[in-house]
Amino acid sequence: MSNEDASFADGAPAPVKGLSLRADDTDSLAVISALMQDAVGKTTDIAWMPKRRIFALVANRFRWEDVDAAKADARPFERRRVGLHFGNVLSVKGAGFDPAKAQQAFELLSITFEAGEDGTGTLSLICAGGAGFALEVEALDLHMSDLEAVWHTQIMPEHDGDDA
Fold first, then answer.
1. Whose CB has fewer CB within 10 Å in the chain, the N or C terminal residue?
2. Residue 131's CB: how many other CB atoms inside 10 A?
3. Residue 146 in domain
4. What residues does 125 pair with on adjacent strands?
5. Is the pTM of this model over 0.70?
6. Closest Cα partner for 63 from 126, 157, 164, 161?
7. For each of the chain's 164 residues, which pLDDT tens digit applies?
8. Is residue 1 one of the residues assigned to a domain?
9. CA distance 93 to 112
10. Which residues have a Cβ under 8 Å from the Cβ of 28 and sit 6 or more positions away?
11. What is the spatial distance between Cα 20 and Cα 26, in angstroms, rounded to a whole number?
12. Cβ contact 57:127 at 8 Å
């Protein structure tokens, strides 16, 4: 029997190099949208900085890119903290959130872009329950960066029509 105390790291996943991606077209946006599907966060972790033309949020994303390996290794699924930074944002409109709730939770379902004239357009962040954000942008400029170590979760998000 060891006299050593258990550490916080016992049972934690091994360090995983984080993703750092950029989207400046709809193809690269589709990749980020897929990776961000089912990310959960709080409205207190969202910031709109109009003078800097930045909209940013921090959430906990499900690591979809690790699902097959987790199943093959018979180990838990993983989540990790991620930051999204939207540049060139001219205006932001939110819908479906209660302004009286300071820490309202959201679940991100998808991020889409509808092009306007000369590279302008609208980025839509669609959340569960009909909530979301519409960002009027001068150009598509999104950065996604994983921030911290991963942690285990036993629950894999499910969607209507999943064969899981």
1. N
2. 20
3. yes
4. 111, 133
5. yes
6. 157
7. 444 444 445 555 556 789 999 999 999 999 999 999 999 999 999 999 999 999 999 999 999 999 999 999 999 999 999 999 999 999 999 999 887 787 889 999 999 999 998 889 999 999 999 999 999 999 999 999 999 878 999 889 987 765 54
8. no
9. 15
10. 21, 22
11. 17
12. no
Look at residue 162 and tell me if it is in a domain.
Answer: no
Report the domain count for the chain: 1
* Amino acid at the residue 109: L
Other CB atoms within a 10 A radius of the CB of residue 57 amount to 22
Q: For the stretch 27-45, what's the b/e string if a residue is b when 16 or more beta carbons lie within 10 angstroms of its beta carbon?
A: eebeebbebbbbbbbbbee
> Which structure tokens are listed for 144?
């996604």
On whether residue 83 sits in a domain, the answer given is: yes
Task: Provide the domain limits for residue 54.
Answer: 20-153
Q: Report the C-alpha dihedral over residues 15, 69, 78, 20, rounded to 10 degrees.
A: 60
